[in-house]
């Protein structure tokens, strides 16, 4: 696997002089999330100018509360949430972490092979009615003159519960987050389409992140050097996990599965989510996705702003 880091080169080749006082970066992460994989690798190489203080949280909502209350400086979340907040006047901003996306999964021997095959079937949807993959999947189906919302028996719920429902054949297909889909794939289930495929079907071919590091723009400006070096180290740790088998095997216990096939699928999808370029084209694509979701959700997902608020994506200035 070959990767190119768009932020790494400018930072890791620099001569990082040891600062007299390190910047403390308070980071909230889920113990079971992929950020924990990178931190386990990253922590073996102490940074020159920053120190991480990691606070474990139970779920993404807890991380958002911690960031908004000022308990932490950085979390991992989605840019749509950031855009919604910026529209209300906050100065949170987003920097890409991963483009790994959810997928529509069925049993290996399922008769479902296309979206039209979902008609009359039982469909599980992780994340609820406003899940962006569900909204975009409906938009894709509409191109085939198919109203998915009206033509399937839908069950919404938490991803672990829905995985179990699919395993027990209580639903026929499942639209879920990437790591839950990967675990099913490791057990022999197959993907009909993933989030990137849905976007391509809608005419969006650029790689757009699903998750990223979120922090206050004012905090980033005050601690830009330390933040930039942390982001570069995070990207380098991901590349190491994707290219160095020894490094990967060290974090395998964090995947919470002993099944070698599932570990391999998790690694593959994790690595496919690497962001190797993030420029004007990708940000314009994100703006198109925002407009589409603004319309599809009738503002419920994005908030009132018709266009992507300026500053949603963080652009570091010169060091």
Automatic annotation (TrEMBL):
It comes from the Bacteria. Keywords: Signal. Residues 52-237 form the SsuA/THI5-like domain. Pfam families: NMT1 (PF09084). SUPFAM superfamilies: Periplasmic binding protein-like II. InterPro entries: SsuA/THI5 (IPR015168). The keyword Signal applies. Residues 1-19 form the signal peptide. PANTHER family: ABC TRANSPORTER SUBSTRATE-BINDING PROTEIN, ALIPHATIC SULFONATES-BINDING PROTEIN-RELATED. This is ABC transporter substrate-binding protein. It comes from Methylovulum psychrotolerans.
């Amino acid at each position: 696997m070959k990767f190119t880091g768009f932020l790494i080169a400018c930072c890791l080749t620099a001569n990082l002089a040891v600062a007299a006082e390190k910047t403390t970066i308070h980071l909230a992460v889920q113990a079971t999330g992929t950020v924990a994989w990178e931190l386990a690798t990253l922590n073996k190489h102490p940074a020159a100018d920053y120190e991480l203080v990691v606070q474990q949280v139970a779920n993404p909502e807890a991380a958002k509360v911690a960031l908004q209350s000022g308990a932490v400086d950085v979390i991992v979340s989605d840019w749509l949430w950031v855009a919604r907040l910026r529209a209300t006047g906050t100065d949170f901003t987003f920097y890409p972490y991963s483009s790994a996306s959810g997928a529509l999964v069925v049993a290996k021997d399922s008769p479902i092979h296309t979206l039209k095959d979902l008609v009359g079937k039982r469909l599980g949807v992780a994340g609820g009615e406003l899940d962006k993959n569900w909204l975009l999947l409906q938009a894709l189906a509409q191109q085939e003159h198919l109203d998915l919302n009206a033509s399937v028996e839908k069950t919404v719920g938490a991803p672990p519960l829905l995985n179990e429902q699919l395993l027990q054949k209580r639903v026929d297909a499942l639209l879920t987050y990437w790591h839950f889909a990967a675990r099913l794939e490791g057990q022999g289930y197959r993907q009909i389409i993933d989030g990137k495929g849905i976007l391509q079907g809608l005419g969006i071919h650029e790689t757009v992140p699903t998750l990223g590091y979120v922090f206050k723009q004012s905090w980033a400006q005050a601690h830009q050097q330390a933040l930039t070096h942390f982001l570069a180290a995070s990207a380098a740790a991901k590349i190491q996990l994707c290219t160095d088998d020894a490094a990967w095997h060290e974090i395998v216990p964090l995947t919470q599965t002993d099944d070698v096939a599932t570990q391999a699928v998790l690694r593959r999808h994790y690595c496919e989510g690497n962001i190797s370029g993030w420029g004007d084209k990708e940000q314009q694509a994100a703006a198109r996705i925002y407009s589409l979701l603004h319309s599809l959700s009738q503002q419920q997902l994005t908030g009132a702003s018709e266009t992507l608020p300026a500053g949603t994506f963080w652009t570091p200035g010169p060091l």
